[in-house]
Write a structure and sequence with these properties.
seven-stranded mixed β-sheet, four-stranded antiparallel β-sheet, 31% helix, 26% strand, disordered N terminus, binds adenosine-5'-diphosphate, binds magnesium ion
Amino acid sequence: MQKPAEQRGIAEDLSISGLSRSFSAPNGTELKVLDDVSCDIAAGETVAVVGPSGSGKSTLLNCIGSLERPNSGSIRLGDTEVTSLEGAELAHFRALRVGFVFQDHHLLPQLTALENVLLPDLAVGGREQAAERARELLLGVGLGGRVDSFPHQLSGGERQRVALARALINAPGLLLCDEPTGNLDRQTGDDVVALLLDIAAGQPVTALMVTHNLRHAARFGRCLQLHDGKLRPVEFDERGEVLDGPPGEAGT
Ligand SMILES: Nc1ncnc2c1ncn2[C@@H]1O[C@H](COP(=O)(O)OP(=O)(O)O)[C@@H](O)[C@H]1O
Ligand SMILES: [Mg+2]
């Protein structure tokens, strides 16, 4: 099943309401990672999510991207209730409506950069002009000359650029990035975030990025902090200093 052409490449609204997710801790108690979380993100917004390690940032992103199911609550992307998707609709949603970038690039080592970018397209049957789009995306992330390179021939930053291009191959309305700069040095991480924000400004996509880096978070349209299972806004001044929100808890 393919998303109709006219729906592709459109940034999507995200509306989260009463979202809860808990896990059983080894000692038998219940660990409430997301506790009645609600938030609305408008189409085209760029949002950073910060919070201490273990506060549930990945759980939140995974629930939004349908990789994990919440215990209760609603996640709506556009007019789709993500939490009730199943079977072919779920596969379709994951392949076409949402793009993921993780801390680890997850590129397949035996495939070239171009082939890696094309993988999500193959998952939906392989479309005409996909190779052309993949080349354009690689050009857009500054790797026009590296399409035939294998992951081991690329630097960490270059591999994350390929991962970013791969996340965008099916023109998703939502881009979810979970600490994409976590393994990169400062300059390379700054460059990847600048690229991500450039991309988000230049094409119709709603972007959420988890980060520990408040300098990066301050560059996003909005910043939310996850703490004690709740999401709350973090405000920055024009120099990127935290105005409102507990900085010590936001990460480094
Ligand atoms: N599948 C799971 N089973 C049990 N506990 C989990 C599972 N996934 C995550 N957790 C726990 O939930 C909490 C939040 O995890 P996570 O979302 O990965 O946090 P973050 O990304 O903010 O570091 C952690 O305490 C983690 O150990
Ligand atoms: Mg995480």
